[in-house]
Design a protein that fits this description.
Blueprint lengths: L11 H15 L16 E6 L5 H12 L3 E6 L11 H10 L4 E6 L4 H8 L3 E7 L5 H15 L6 E5 L6 H12 L3 E5 L14 E3 L2 H4 L5 E4 L15 H8 L3 H4 L7 E3 L12 H4 L6 H20 L4
Parallel strand pairs: 1-2, 1-3, 3-4, 5-6, 5-8, 6-7, 8-9
Helix pairs in contact: 1-5, 1-11, 2-11, 3-4, 5-6, 5-11
Protein backbone atom coordinates (compact mmCIF):
# COMPACT_ATOMS: atom_id res chain seq x y z
CA UNK A 1 0.00 0.00 0.00
CA UNK A 2 1.54 3.29 -1.16
CA UNK A 3 -1.15 5.83 -0.22
CA UNK A 4 -4.33 5.98 1.85
CA UNK A 5 -6.68 8.20 -0.14
CA UNK A 6 -10.06 6.47 0.04
CA UNK A 7 -11.72 3.60 1.86
CA UNK A 8 -12.82 2.44 -1.60
CA UNK A 9 -9.21 1.36 -2.13
CA UNK A 10 -9.36 -1.06 0.82
CA UNK A 11 -10.57 -4.60 0.44
CA UNK A 12 -11.80 -6.53 3.47
CA UNK A 13 -8.44 -8.23 4.04
CA UNK A 14 -6.45 -4.99 4.01
CA UNK A 15 -8.95 -3.15 6.22
CA UNK A 16 -8.94 -6.03 8.70
CA UNK A 17 -5.13 -6.05 8.70
CA UNK A 18 -5.13 -2.34 9.63
CA UNK A 19 -7.57 -3.00 12.48
CA UNK A 20 -5.48 -5.94 13.71
CA UNK A 21 -2.27 -3.90 13.66
CA UNK A 22 -4.10 -1.08 15.48
CA UNK A 23 -4.93 -3.56 18.24
CA UNK A 24 -1.22 -4.27 18.64
CA UNK A 25 -0.41 -0.55 18.54
CA UNK A 26 -2.96 0.12 21.29
CA UNK A 27 -0.83 -1.92 23.68
CA UNK A 28 1.94 0.70 23.36
CA UNK A 29 -0.17 3.25 25.24
CA UNK A 30 -0.08 0.99 28.28
CA UNK A 31 3.71 0.98 28.44
CA UNK A 32 5.82 3.23 30.64
CA UNK A 33 7.57 4.53 27.50
CA UNK A 34 4.92 4.97 24.82
CA UNK A 35 7.24 4.67 21.82
CA UNK A 36 8.34 2.24 19.14
CA UNK A 37 11.48 2.76 17.00
CA UNK A 38 9.70 1.67 13.80
CA UNK A 39 9.82 4.98 11.90
CA UNK A 40 13.01 6.46 13.32
CA UNK A 41 14.62 8.67 10.68
CA UNK A 42 11.37 9.10 8.73
CA UNK A 43 9.68 12.49 8.30
CA UNK A 44 5.91 12.94 8.45
CA UNK A 45 4.40 16.29 7.43
CA UNK A 46 0.94 17.29 8.65
CA UNK A 47 -0.30 19.58 5.87
CA UNK A 48 -3.55 21.14 7.09
CA UNK A 49 -5.44 23.70 5.02
CA UNK A 50 -8.46 23.47 7.35
CA UNK A 51 -8.67 23.83 11.12
CA UNK A 52 -8.50 20.58 13.04
CA UNK A 53 -8.00 19.47 16.61
CA UNK A 54 -8.56 15.73 16.89
CA UNK A 55 -7.22 14.60 13.52
CA UNK A 56 -4.06 16.71 13.47
CA UNK A 57 -3.09 15.97 17.07
CA UNK A 58 -3.94 12.30 16.58
CA UNK A 59 -1.68 12.00 13.54
CA UNK A 60 1.08 13.89 15.34
CA UNK A 61 0.85 11.61 18.38
CA UNK A 62 0.78 8.52 16.14
CA UNK A 63 3.90 9.55 14.21
CA UNK A 64 5.81 10.49 17.36
CA UNK A 65 4.93 7.21 19.07
CA UNK A 66 6.52 5.49 16.07
CA UNK A 67 9.62 7.72 16.52
CA UNK A 68 9.14 9.67 13.28
CA UNK A 69 10.12 13.32 12.92
CA UNK A 70 6.97 15.45 12.60
CA UNK A 71 6.52 18.77 10.83
CA UNK A 72 3.21 20.58 11.33
CA UNK A 73 2.24 22.86 8.44
CA UNK A 74 -0.74 25.20 8.71
CA UNK A 75 -2.00 27.20 5.75
CA UNK A 76 -2.51 30.16 8.05
CA UNK A 77 0.68 32.19 8.28
CA UNK A 78 2.36 30.26 5.45
CA UNK A 79 3.13 31.01 1.81
CA UNK A 80 -0.34 29.69 0.98
CA UNK A 81 -1.74 33.00 2.19
CA UNK A 82 0.56 34.67 -0.35
CA UNK A 83 -0.98 32.62 -3.15
CA UNK A 84 1.30 29.56 -3.30
CA UNK A 85 -0.41 26.66 -5.08
CA UNK A 86 -0.76 23.16 -3.70
CA UNK A 87 1.61 21.93 -6.40
CA UNK A 88 4.34 24.37 -5.39
CA UNK A 89 3.84 23.47 -1.74
CA UNK A 90 4.12 19.80 -2.71
CA UNK A 91 7.43 20.44 -4.47
CA UNK A 92 8.69 22.23 -1.35
CA UNK A 93 7.82 19.24 0.79
CA UNK A 94 9.42 16.95 -1.76
CA UNK A 95 12.64 18.99 -1.61
CA UNK A 96 12.61 18.70 2.19
CA UNK A 97 12.49 14.91 1.95
CA UNK A 98 9.04 14.22 3.39
CA UNK A 99 8.43 10.47 3.60
CA UNK A 100 4.71 10.92 4.22
CA UNK A 101 2.29 13.82 3.91
CA UNK A 102 -0.94 13.87 5.89
CA UNK A 103 -3.22 16.35 4.13
CA UNK A 104 -6.52 18.00 5.04
CA UNK A 105 -7.87 20.27 2.32
CA UNK A 106 -11.20 22.00 1.58
CA UNK A 107 -11.12 20.84 -2.05
CA UNK A 108 -12.37 17.32 -2.78
CA UNK A 109 -9.68 15.36 -4.61
CA UNK A 110 -6.70 17.40 -3.35
CA UNK A 111 -4.95 14.36 -1.77
CA UNK A 112 -5.19 12.49 -5.09
CA UNK A 113 -3.47 15.39 -6.89
CA UNK A 114 -0.82 15.60 -4.21
CA UNK A 115 -0.06 11.90 -4.65
CA UNK A 116 0.91 12.66 -8.27
CA UNK A 117 3.42 15.31 -7.19
CA UNK A 118 5.34 13.71 -4.33
CA UNK A 119 7.28 10.47 -4.13
CA UNK A 120 6.35 9.86 -0.49
CA UNK A 121 3.11 8.41 0.83
CA UNK A 122 -0.03 10.55 1.06
CA UNK A 123 -2.69 10.05 3.72
CA UNK A 124 -6.05 11.73 3.27
CA UNK A 125 -7.08 13.44 6.52
CA UNK A 126 -10.24 14.85 4.98
CA UNK A 127 -10.84 16.45 1.58
CA UNK A 128 -13.83 18.73 1.18
CA UNK A 129 -17.06 16.76 1.36
CA UNK A 130 -15.40 13.72 -0.25
CA UNK A 131 -13.73 11.34 2.23
CA UNK A 132 -12.00 10.88 5.57
CA UNK A 133 -10.65 7.30 5.48
CA UNK A 134 -8.78 7.16 8.79
CA UNK A 135 -11.91 8.35 10.63
CA UNK A 136 -13.86 5.48 9.09
CA UNK A 137 -11.11 3.05 10.09
CA UNK A 138 -11.09 4.25 13.70
CA UNK A 139 -14.88 4.05 13.75
CA UNK A 140 -14.71 0.46 12.49
CA UNK A 141 -12.04 -0.33 15.08
CA UNK A 142 -14.24 1.12 17.82
CA UNK A 143 -17.27 -0.87 16.66
CA UNK A 144 -15.27 -4.09 16.56
CA UNK A 145 -13.78 -3.40 20.01
CA UNK A 146 -17.20 -2.78 21.57
CA UNK A 147 -19.33 -5.27 19.63
CA UNK A 148 -16.78 -8.00 18.89
CA UNK A 149 -17.51 -7.92 15.15
CA UNK A 150 -18.63 -5.74 12.25
CA UNK A 151 -20.02 -8.28 9.81
CA UNK A 152 -23.80 -8.53 10.09
CA UNK A 153 -24.30 -5.44 12.27
CA UNK A 154 -26.86 -2.77 11.43
CA UNK A 155 -25.21 0.68 11.49
CA UNK A 156 -27.48 3.74 11.33
CA UNK A 157 -25.81 7.00 10.25
CA UNK A 158 -27.89 10.04 11.18
CA UNK A 159 -27.81 13.67 10.12
CA UNK A 160 -25.98 15.80 7.60
CA UNK A 161 -24.86 13.04 5.25
CA UNK A 162 -24.76 15.39 2.25
CA UNK A 163 -21.77 17.37 3.55
CA UNK A 164 -20.12 14.56 5.51
CA UNK A 165 -16.86 13.04 4.28
CA UNK A 166 -17.01 10.83 7.40
CA UNK A 167 -20.31 9.34 6.24
CA UNK A 168 -19.00 8.62 2.75
CA UNK A 169 -15.90 6.84 4.01
CA UNK A 170 -17.92 4.88 6.57
CA UNK A 171 -20.50 3.75 4.01
CA UNK A 172 -17.75 2.36 1.77
CA UNK A 173 -15.76 0.69 4.56
CA UNK A 174 -18.67 -0.73 6.54
CA UNK A 175 -20.14 -2.27 3.40
CA UNK A 176 -16.76 -3.83 2.62
CA UNK A 177 -16.62 -5.29 6.13
CA UNK A 178 -20.13 -6.77 5.89
CA UNK A 179 -22.27 -4.33 7.86
CA UNK A 180 -25.74 -3.18 6.84
CA UNK A 181 -25.93 0.63 6.65
CA UNK A 182 -29.00 2.86 6.84
CA UNK A 183 -28.79 6.63 6.32
CA UNK A 184 -31.31 8.78 8.19
CA UNK A 185 -31.93 12.51 8.00
CA UNK A 186 -33.95 15.24 6.31
CA UNK A 187 -34.51 14.53 2.59
CA UNK A 188 -32.43 17.64 1.80
CA UNK A 189 -29.40 16.22 3.64
CA UNK A 190 -29.44 12.55 2.60
CA UNK A 191 -28.29 11.82 -0.97
CA UNK A 192 -29.94 8.72 -2.39
CA UNK A 193 -27.14 7.87 -4.83
CA UNK A 194 -24.35 7.37 -2.29
CA UNK A 195 -24.22 3.58 -2.56
CA UNK A 196 -26.63 1.10 -4.12
CA UNK A 197 -26.49 -1.24 -1.11
CA UNK A 198 -27.32 1.48 1.44
CA UNK A 199 -30.85 2.00 2.71
CA UNK A 200 -32.30 5.49 3.21
CA UNK A 201 -34.92 6.45 5.81
CA UNK A 202 -36.38 9.71 7.07
CA UNK A 203 -38.03 8.54 10.30
CA UNK A 204 -35.37 8.08 12.99
CA UNK A 205 -37.76 6.65 15.58
CA UNK A 206 -38.77 3.85 13.22
CA UNK A 207 -35.17 2.77 12.59
CA UNK A 208 -33.71 2.93 16.12
CA UNK A 209 -35.19 -0.36 17.47
CA UNK A 210 -33.31 -2.34 14.78
CA UNK A 211 -29.95 -0.53 15.19
CA UNK A 212 -26.77 -2.05 16.63
CA UNK A 213 -24.78 1.15 16.13
CA UNK A 214 -26.09 4.71 15.83
CA UNK A 215 -23.58 7.17 14.41
CA UNK A 216 -24.60 10.81 14.78
CA UNK A 217 -23.14 13.41 12.41
CA UNK A 218 -22.48 17.09 13.03
CA UNK A 219 -24.61 19.55 11.11
CA UNK A 220 -21.94 21.32 9.04
CA UNK A 221 -23.33 24.83 8.90
CA UNK A 222 -20.04 26.16 7.49
CA UNK A 223 -20.56 24.14 4.29
CA UNK A 224 -24.22 25.08 3.83
CA UNK A 225 -25.15 27.80 1.36
CA UNK A 226 -28.90 27.13 1.45
CA UNK A 227 -31.52 26.41 4.08
CA UNK A 228 -31.70 22.62 4.45
CA UNK A 229 -34.16 22.49 7.38
CA UNK A 230 -36.59 24.94 9.01
CA UNK A 231 -34.67 25.56 12.25
CA UNK A 232 -32.17 24.04 14.65
CA UNK A 233 -35.01 23.32 17.07
CA UNK A 234 -36.99 21.46 14.42
CA UNK A 235 -33.91 19.49 13.35
CA UNK A 236 -33.21 18.48 16.94
CA UNK A 237 -36.85 17.45 17.48
CA UNK A 238 -36.85 15.12 14.48
CA UNK A 239 -33.24 13.92 14.25
CA UNK A 240 -31.54 14.68 17.55
CA UNK A 241 -30.57 11.76 19.79
CA UNK A 242 -31.85 12.29 23.33
CA UNK A 243 -32.51 10.06 26.32
CA UNK A 244 -35.95 9.00 25.10
CA UNK A 245 -34.58 7.89 21.75
CA UNK A 246 -31.63 6.15 23.42
CA UNK A 247 -34.15 4.02 25.31
CA UNK A 248 -35.76 3.00 22.00
CA UNK A 249 -32.51 1.38 20.93
CA UNK A 250 -31.67 -2.25 21.79
CA UNK A 251 -29.86 -2.64 25.12
CA UNK A 252 -26.62 -3.68 23.42
CA UNK A 253 -26.55 -0.81 20.88
CA UNK A 254 -23.87 1.88 21.04
CA UNK A 255 -23.76 5.57 20.10
CA UNK A 256 -20.96 7.17 18.08
CA UNK A 257 -20.04 10.69 16.93
CA UNK A 258 -16.92 11.75 14.99
CA UNK A 259 -16.81 15.17 16.69
CA UNK A 260 -16.87 18.00 17.19
CA UNK A 261 -20.39 17.82 18.61
CA UNK A 262 -23.18 20.38 18.60
CA UNK A 263 -24.41 19.38 22.05
CA UNK A 264 -28.13 19.88 22.34
CA UNK A 265 -28.69 19.83 18.60
CA UNK A 266 -27.76 16.45 17.12
CA UNK A 267 -27.03 14.84 20.50
CA UNK A 268 -27.87 15.70 24.09
CA UNK A 269 -25.29 15.69 26.92
CA UNK A 270 -27.23 12.85 28.57
CA UNK A 271 -26.51 10.60 25.57
CA UNK A 272 -23.03 11.90 24.71
CA UNK A 273 -21.79 11.23 28.25
CA UNK A 274 -23.61 7.92 28.77
CA UNK A 275 -21.84 4.53 29.12
CA UNK A 276 -23.26 3.55 25.73
CA UNK A 277 -21.38 6.40 24.05
CA UNK A 278 -18.02 5.63 22.40
CA UNK A 279 -17.09 9.25 21.64
CA UNK A 280 -14.06 9.42 23.95
CA UNK A 281 -12.97 5.93 22.88
CA UNK A 282 -13.04 7.03 19.25
CA UNK A 283 -10.50 9.75 20.01
CA UNK A 284 -8.25 7.30 21.86
CA UNK A 285 -8.57 4.68 19.14
CA UNK A 286 -7.71 7.24 16.48
CA UNK A 287 -4.08 7.30 17.61
CA UNK A 288 -3.73 3.51 17.40
CA UNK A 289 -5.40 3.31 13.99
CA UNK A 290 -3.26 6.11 12.56
CA UNK A 291 -0.16 4.41 13.97
CA UNK A 292 -1.23 1.28 12.08
CA UNK A 293 -1.69 3.25 8.83
CA UNK A 294 1.70 4.95 9.11
CA UNK A 295 3.32 1.62 9.97
CA UNK A 296 1.86 -0.06 6.88
CA UNK A 297 2.82 2.80 4.58
CA UNK A 298 6.29 3.55 5.94
CA UNK A 299 7.35 0.56 8.00
CA UNK A 300 8.98 -1.38 5.16
CA UNK A 301 12.62 -1.32 4.15
CA UNK A 302 13.82 2.04 2.89
Amino acid sequence: MKHLLSTADLDAATATEILDIATEMASVSGREIKKLPTLRGRTVVNLFYEDSTRTRISFEAAAKRLSADVINFSAKGSSVEKGESLKDTAWTLQAMGADAVVIRHPASGAPHRLADWVTGSVLNAGDGTHEHPTQALLDAYTIRSRMGRIDGLHVVIVGDVLHSRVARSNVLLLNTLGAKVTLVGPPTLVPTDLNASVQVAYDLDAVLPQADVVMMLRVQKERMTDSYFPSAREYSRRYGLDGARLRRMPAHAIVMHPGPMNRGMEITPEVADSPRSTIVEQVTNGVSVRMACLYLLLGGAR
